[in-house]
Design brief:
single chain, alpha+beta, Agglutinin, subunit A, 5 domains, five-stranded antiparallel beta sheet, 46 strands, 22% helix, membrane, G-type_lectin_kinases/EP1-like, transmembrane, serine/threonine-protein kinase, transferase
Length: 806
């Protein structure tokens, strides 16, 4: 029977309403979403304002489990799971039948899970039109909600801090990289503070902004009208941070985001004509929140760690957003990540006084520019020309800032650079002349031109007999002085024929004066050498570490030559710097930079504990130094003796790898070698004992043991351990990992316990590094990526499975 027209109309209306109800219903237990390209995979809010699900990130094949504005073309993300790490196609999120919200990779490995507050049985989930995704229990109470676990964004009606909410926002790494970046927004102990780090793993230092509410602030509130303010514990307003006169919820979408460059901003998006509109600034008044992040302050005295939007040797300039740039003669370390700073593209000035190179350098002027830190000498009431000449004549001077008769020398790497009209003055950046061809001795074409000029002048003089006898006399005097100088200064270095530039050659008498007759012994570097404290007599009188080899032991000569050959070719912030050497007769001596805090081994105990974040910083910096040796140095170097005694620390606990006496060079294209066992007990990779070919993976193994020591703050072998099974750290750590008892490793370390997710990650990285099978170990590049969080860490196998399979 045919339907009447009116009945047909109501039929279609009912079908539409039912369809609407199906689209916007609550998420029932057992529901799931799968990440797939070009396929909508999300749960929407009732009016379609927001969506929860998988969003593919532009320019990549990866997906984020996220919440986003769904009615605007930009699909702006306001929350993400899994610390912003991307997932592959086929990944799945499921609301399980027992009420767990679980994210799994395409391989089935669990990547993230909502930390549910068990106040009742979960009955369903819902995406709300406020932008809050919630898990609801049988009492209609939210057992978990995204509003309580913000990432870098807060929305209207959302509160931050208090009531079980997270007290930290993490800025993303870059505009398109949602993993944790270098800025932290914290509400703790009644104060709102903004922090910067040199890298996401670095320790938090002095805040570059704080609310100064001194324990009174309880919550940060974002109301629907666009105002953002702090409240006291009794609910009263403490400080108005952002306010807007136009952001009505009927007309605008709103969000407040802690942006990747470290600035907290409020944005609005008009709902009318949403398809052609864009996000724009929504605030009309701003307190003392830092708007120009380039001028951030990190404390009264600063902290010389390259803090700020831009890394070492680069400078920051505000152009709507802060931009990082390199001075002339420098280029970005990573063009795809300019915050990593700039590397020097020219050979540094030689410190050899016998062949000064001041004529090979010039200055690039940066008006209204400065590097806030890196200063080591200050000259007052001088002219700009005097400032230029002082820096040109000082091999340690990378730049000089001149302001109103004041000259400040800056050393490399240049730190916290910025350009802004408020700075005034100018900075002179020293750069090698681009048309100078650098010979092995650093003389360049200018030396050849000078030589040609002398030949021409000599020819003219020789054509006149009047000058012949005079010329012969002058030549005799010059030759005598040159030969005498070579015999006095250069002869001690003649036996050391390495193609190494910029190393000072010291005489034994200079070494004796430097060390006050070897008065202060710092310790033994090896069986063949002792280390003494010394003071340089030139430059700024820096302290140095003087390593004296015992020439009576045959092996010491090989260790001396190996060390100067290895470290003399390197230039990295996490490798100890070699200033020079002495190779005079029976004396073989190396002069290194002085590391005031000594070696890491002094701090691996309960009595001398350094905090958790500093230990992780040391691990990251050691990995960076090894990566440089293995892949970024001009010739691949295997250190062969990574252990706490060879990790030195400066005043800021910056880690630097030292002691290259056992290092092994590999030729271009070579990736393995056969050599006798090298290294120290407890850190030697098993392939040494099997007489297998050696690769850079032996350093990876040693690093894995070192990483476990840093995690657990103890040595790899404790003969006086409370239980026998705790004596060997590597075995104990794997047993704890398999038994899901990792907390036993760090139970006395509150900071580590508070950073539990990273503890698990670092233990897994260490267990990968100490695999018995070298091919199973990651490269140091992958290790650094895992430490930084850019590569996911999978579950490691039993490190000894390789042995059992043989």
């Amino acid at each position: 029977m045919a339907l009447e027209p009116v009945s047909l109309f109501f039929f279609f209306l009912l079908a539409t309403l039912l369809s609407f109800a199906r689209t916007y219903q609550n998420v029932s237990l057992g529901s799931s979403l799968t990440a797939q390209s070009n396929t909508n995979s999300f749960w929407s809010s009732p009016y379609g304002e927001f969506a929860f699900g998988f969003q593919q990130i532009s320019g990549s094949d990866g997906f984020l489990l996220a919440i986003w504005f769904d009615k605007i073309p930009e699909k702006t993300i306001v929350w993400s799971a899994n610390e912003g790490d991307l997932l592959s196609s086929g990944s799945e999120v499921e609301l399980t039948t027992d009420g767990q919200l679980v994210l799994k990779a395409a391989t089935g490995q669990q990547m993230w899970k909502a930390n549910v507050n068990y106040t009742g049985v979960i009955t369903y989930a819902a995406m709300l039109d406020t932008g809050n995704f919630v898990l609801v229990n049988s009492n209609s109470v939210y057992s978990w909600e995204s509003f309580k676990q913000p990432t870098d964004t807060i929305l209207p009606t959302q509160t931050f801090g208090g009531g079980g909410s997270s007290t930290t926002l993490f800025a993303r790494y870059s505009e398109t990289n949602y993993s944790r970046g270098r800025y932290t927004f914290e509400l703790k102990e009644g104060n709102l503070k903004l922090y910067a780090r040199y890298s996401p793993l670095d320790f938090i230092y002095y805040p570059y902004w704080k609310s100064d509410t001194e324990g009174n602030a309880n919550q940060l509130v974002f109301n629907q009208s666009g105002s953002i303010y702090l409240t006291e514990k009794n609910g009263g307003s403490v400080i108005q941070m952002l306010s807007s006169n136009e952001a009505s919820p009927q007309d605008f979408y709103q969000r407040a985001i802690f942006e990747y460059e470290g600035v907290f901003r409020h944005y609005v998006y008009p709902k009318s004509n949403a398809s052609i509109e864009r996000w724009r600034r929504g605030w009309t008044s701003l307190t003392n929140l830092p708007e120009n992040i380039c001028l951030m302050k990190t404390g009264d005295n600063g902290d010389d760690r390259g803090l700020g939007p831009c890394g070492f040797n680069s400078y920051c300039q505000l152009d709507q957003r802060p931009t990082c740039q390199c001075p002339e003669g420098y280029s970005f370390v990573d063009p795809d990540d300019v915050s990593m700073g700039c590397k020097q593209d020219f050979v540094s000035q030689s410190c050899n006084e016998a062949s000064p190179e001041s004529n090979l350098f010039y200055f690039q002027e940066m008006r209204n520019g400065d590097w806030a830190f890196s200063k080591y000498e200050h000259l007052q009431q001088v002219t700009e020309d005097y400032c230029r000449q002082e820096c040109l004549g000082d091999c340690f001077c990378a730049a000089a800032t001149y302001v109103n008769g004041s000259c400040t020398k800056k050393k490399s790497p240049l730190s916290n650079g910025r350009i802004d009209p408020s700075i005034g003055g100018k900075t002179l950046v020293k750069t090698r002349k681009s048309n100078t061809s650098i010979s092995e001795n650093g003389d360049g074409d200018s030396g050849k031109k000078d030589e040609s000029a002398l030949i021409l002048i000599g020819s003219i003089l020789l054509s006149s007999s009047v000058f012949l006898n005079f010329l012969l006399m002058v030549a005799t005097v010059v030759v005598f002085r040159i030969c005498h100088r070579k015999r006095k200064v250069l002869q001690p270095c003649d036996d050391l024929r390495f193609p190494i530039r910029n190393l000072q050659c010291f005489t034994y008498e200079e070494i004796k004066e430097m060390t006050n007759e070897f008065k202060e012994e710092l310790g033994c570097s090896s069986d063949f050498a002792k280390v003494y404290k010394g003071v340089l007599k030139f430059g700024n009188g820096s302290c140095v570490a003087v390593k004296r080899f015992n020439r009576m032991i045959t092996e010491s000569e090989a260790e001396f030559k190996a060390e100067v050959s290895a470290i003399g070719r390197t230039n990295h912030r996490n490798l100890v710097q070699l200033f020079g050497f002495c190779n005079e007769g029976q004396y073989q001596i190396l002069v290194y930079e002085f590391m005031s805090m000594g070696s890491l081994v002094n701090f691996l105990s309960k009595d001398s504990r350094i905090n958790w974040y500093t230990r992780i910083q040391i691990a990251s910096e050691t990995a960076s130094g090894l990566l440089y040796l293995h892949e970024e140095c001009s010739t691949q170097i295997i250190h062969c003796d990574i252990k706490p005694q060879n990790i030195l620390l400066d005043d800021n606990f910056t880690a630097k790898i030292s002691d290259f006496g056992l290092a092994k060079h590999l030729k271009t294209g070579q990736n393995l070698t056969i050599t006798a066992i090298r290294g120290s007990k407890g850190y030697i990779a098993p392939e040494w004992f099997k007489k297998m070919p050696i690769t850079a993976k032996v350093d990876v193994y040693s690093f894995g043991i070192l990483l476990l020591e840093l995690i657990c703050n103890r040595k790899s072998l404790e003969l006086k351990a409370e239980d026998d099974f705790q004596m060997v750290l590597a075995d104990w750590a794997y047993d704890c990992f398999m038994d899901k008892k990792l907390h036993v490793l760090v139970e006395e370390d509150n900071e580590a316990m508070d950073d539990w997710k990273n503890v698990e990650k670092y233990v897994k990285i260490a267990l990968w590094c100490i695999q018995q099978d070298p091919s199973m170990r990651p490269s140091m590049k992958k290790v650094t990526q895992m430490l930084e969080g850019t590569v996911k860490v999978s579950i490691p196998p039993d490190p000894y499975s390789f042995i059992s399979s043989i």
